[in-house]
Amino acid sequence: MSRDGTIAIIGAGIAGAAAAHRLHAAGRRVVVLDKGRGPGGRMATRRGPDSLRFDHGAQYFTARDPLFAAVVESWAARGVAAPWGGAGRHVGTPGMTAPVRDLLDGIDLRCGRAVDRLVRDGRDWRLADAEGAALADGAAFASVLLTCPSPQSLALLAGAGHDLPGLAEVRYAPCWTLMLAHDGPPAPDAVVREDRDPDATFAWVARDGSKPGREAGGTLVAHASPAWSRASLECAAEDVAEQLLAALRDLVPLGEVRHRAAHRWRYAAVERAVGEPCLFAPETGLGFAGDGCLGPRVEFAYLSGLALAERVLGETA
Questions:
Q1: What is the spatial distance between Cα 152 and Cα 166, in angstroms, rounded to a whole number?
Q2: By the 8 A CB rule, do 62 and 83 touch?
Q3: Considering only Cβ atoms within 10 Å of each terminal Cβ, which end of the chain, N or C, has fewer?
Q4: Signed CA dihedral, 120, 125, 127, 133: sign only
Q5: Cα(187)–Cα(209) distance, integer angstroms
Q6: 261: helix, coil or strand?
Q7: What is the pLDDT of residue 1?
Q8: What integer best gives the mean pLDDT of the chain?
Q9: Distance of CA 31 to the CA centre of its chain
Q10: Domain Amine oxidase, which positions (predicted)?
Q11: pLDDT for the residue 188
């Protein structure tokens, strides 16, 4: 791999952002591409009508690892993150995407770019969309780092005739999320429900407006359990919203509902991880990072992205 070749990172979630930030700080040229409208991945904030906002993906993050704790401390000092709800929970401010945006500041980020093909060009790689059109202005990349969920990463690797051992073993649980605004009284607690019962309808219900930097009000985010989400995975979003709303009324006193919407996360939480900080093949320059490597925590995804960046830097030093 070329010492100073440009590096493509596919996926602008926390793992991709961590890798990009470290590589950029080391003086490497980095381009980050994501198929979404903005960065964040599952650290997501959805806008609704009347300036409503919902953190409909990751609800919070912990900082148990000393390295990540130092990063969170820096975010807190600059207003990018803040504690919420006790139990060591932190959130991005004013939304969950804020820490990812902070990491990507000053980095070449291209959203709305769905990469469907990796094309070998000598010792480099080029990126193409589903129609074969070149992406990233047709640039050649010495390395391509995949930080999207493993099924999507595996498809890209297979199309290029390559593999990363262990990646196919990763398993995810899906999640249907209900975003709700209502005119009733606010829930008495920030976290209304946290339930690990596999037969429960909801795994998580929280008052979104209780988070720092948000407008207070009757906004709730509810995550259906993995079992419920699997059983309803291919249902229409409006039908799911109606069913979850009916179930939520048994838990929370709701007034008139002003807004409701459901979002499906097909790859929400890792159930089986690789067990390694990252995967990297120096002979091809292909790598993978994310919570699929270490487990279902934001901080694990960050540490995985950082580990992959260090592997790349170590191989090209």
A1: 15
A2: no
A3: C
A4: negative
A5: 10
A6: strand
A7: 44
A8: 95
A9: 18
A10: 92-313
A11: 81
Domain 7-43+97-170+273-316: give its CATH superfamily. Answer: FAD/NAD(P)-binding domain (3.50.50.60)
DSSP run (H or E) holding 54 = strand 53-54
Whole-model pTM over 0.85: yes
Pairing state between β 90-92 and 81-83: antiparallel
Dihedral, CA atoms, 297, 57, 37, 270, nearest 10 degrees? 40
CATH number of this structure's domain 46-93+172-272, picked from the four choices 3.30.1050.10, 3.40.50.720, 3.90.660.10, 3.40.50.300: 3.90.660.10
Band of pLDDT at residue 198, cut at 50, 70 and 90: confident
pLDDT band with cut points at 50, 70 and 90 for residue 157: very high
Angle between helices 298-316 and 14-25 (to 10 degrees): 30
Residue-level length of the chain? 317
Please say if the pLDDT value at position 218 is more than 90: no
Q: Would you give the end-to-end CA distance of the chain in angstroms?
A: 10
Between CA 187 and CA 234 the distance in angstroms is 30
Tell me the torsion sign for CA atoms 17, 20, 23, 26: negative
Show the tokens assigned to 250: 């048994």
What is the pLDDT confidence band of residue 245, given thresholds at 50, 70 and 90?
A: very high
Residues contacting 161, CB < 8 A, separation 6+: none
Helix ranges, the chain (H):
14-25, 66-77, 98-103, 150-159, 226-231, 237-248, 291-294, 298-316
Radius of gyration of the CA atoms of the chain, in A: 20
